[in-house]
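Researcher: We're teaching a course module on how sequence relates to structure. For the next exercise, students receive a sequence and then see the predicted structure as tokens, so they can try to spot secondary structure elements on their own. Here is the exercise chain.
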Amino acid sequence: MPGGESNPRILGGPEKKLQSAKLGKLARRFGLPRENPDPAPLVLALETYYTVLVKLLVAEATPRRPAAAGWAETLLRTRNADDPFAWYTEAWSAEIAEAIRDIAGKVARYASVPPSSPGADVFGRLYQHLFPQGLRHGLGEYYTPEWLAEHVLDATGYSGSGDGRLLDPACGSGVFLLAAIRRIRRARGGSTEPRELAREILDSVVGFDLNPLAVMTARANYLLAIGDLLGPEPAVEIPVYRRDAILDEAQPGERFDYVVGNPPWIAWEYLPAAYREATAPLWRHYGLFSLSGTEARHGGGKKDLSTLVLYAAADRYLKHGGRLGFVITQTLLQTKGAGDGFRRFRLGVSGEPLGVLRVDDMVRFQPFAGAANWTAAIVLEKGRETTYPVPYVRWTLDGRLPRGGDVPEGCFSRESCTARPIDPARPRSPWLVLPEGTAADVAPRPGPSDYVAHLGANSGGANGVYWVEVLGRRGDGVLVRNLPGRGKRAVEAVECVLEPDLLYPLVRWGDVARYHARPRTWLLLAQDVQSRKGIDEAVMQDRYPRTLAYLTRFREALIARAAYRRYQHRWAFYSMYNVGPYTPAPIKVIWRRMDTRIRAAVVEPIDDAVLGTRPVIAQETCVQLEAGSLAEAHYSITSTCGVSTRKTPSTPRWPKPARRPIVSPPRARP
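Model: And here is the predicted structure for the students to work with:
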């Protein structure tokens, strides 16, 4: 939420995202029962406490704070219509009043310390302290650093000196709004009377967000940023509103010269079904669903909500000739399939074009603490056609990431490049990025590859069912224990005996290092890899009755998976996603799907003391490339490190050498 990412829980409840956020540890910090805390009330309690703190801090820091005794209770018993976190006003009691007075007394000790400068994000750090990283990242929330917001404004050309109106349509705690306010104050502060300057800011810097907690925080930050300009006049309306930039039903006509921000990065499959249905017409209208059903199902349909926010905001809010600067995932520019629709750069079939003016590639480091996302910033101009090559700048971190808004000299180095479609005949094809001034004609080099990479097996959020620990042999079966805390939904812990045939060693993202991969757990794969469907239930009952009985215990959770409901509801309820003939390939190259640098390894079947020789399966957080032999696999791994793997008719198919262990098997307890 802070810094620009709307809170996805507003789109459909927190439970799906919070199971893996270590809520037990969070509950213990606040003196609550640790065992299996209910996510919804725990998060609501934290949000309410945060809201109370913000209101009291703002009231203490503004010159119009009421001086009468009991002002805190008066303030907090006044409920606004758009404040869902003021539920306590309906249940007011002596105990609540005492708690409010206690909090107000402690706040008063710190509120006398002003922010380092007008326009600082006072509440972002507070939010990060109250809501631990595991919880925030489980909800898709990443704090946008001030230096990144400042860079986006620089790239769009926004100086604050009469440039026009600016909007952040997913403003979070208001980092981009505060950066704009600082610029206006620097550019206009010496020549404009304070109240007039405040009015100019209020008229020209606007924020929207769907999350009421974000709206409240941004309003508070905004008020503190201009509070010294207002004087003792009556309260003003802060132009930060609770609105959904995608499904905004407001009357058209409100246009801005600049639209900036860091839209929410939420994968399509993690959106609630009702929201996917409501937004589906817009995905189609803007051409963001550009693939066939089969392509979309098998790896090409990894759509992200940020793309729809960008197109909808450019269409609805940006003036003709206006500029949009967004933080996006860099994969949109170089991914085949999923990024094709984004690279249309046109608002619908016959709408206005969006001209790409500049891209900043920050893949080589992590602007967002604790996130492995591939980050880029893009600047577009509405009404201009995109012409290639596009200026493209690759950033490298040479020092430590700055904490404030200014980027110290020498912190980053930047390489000027150019980008263009890899296939000139297909303008929406992935981009080819080359250093500026490259003289060699590389146009003939790109072409179809003889190797096809695939995502690993995807449980659709039910890892706690499919991931198991092998405990040892039991007669003609294998004793296993599932890993109930590893999925998006909590499931019961089960220890039972299964047939060994459908158990495979599993390589996950964290199991892959450079030239080395070590599976640490096992995957139950009840899938017909040729038909890409779950094994028929009648076959399961005949051949694997104990496995079918185990899966049936989780039938409700497996049917509730979004991917199953969308793509596989006609098949067995335990069907999995991204599974095909390539999945159990005996020899393959595996690498991490998203990472700051390449980590790849060659794997082959392992010899396990309990289950015998079994091929290794990759998780969907990894990518795999099937090879015909170990020699070919070691040859083709060079493609993962940036060397072409394109074969010619003269390329030999190497004979398979004697088997040798490449990966270590997971240990099975006797």
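Model: If you want an answer key for the exercise: DSSP finds 21 helices and 26 strands in the chain. The two ends are 47 Å apart (CA to CA).
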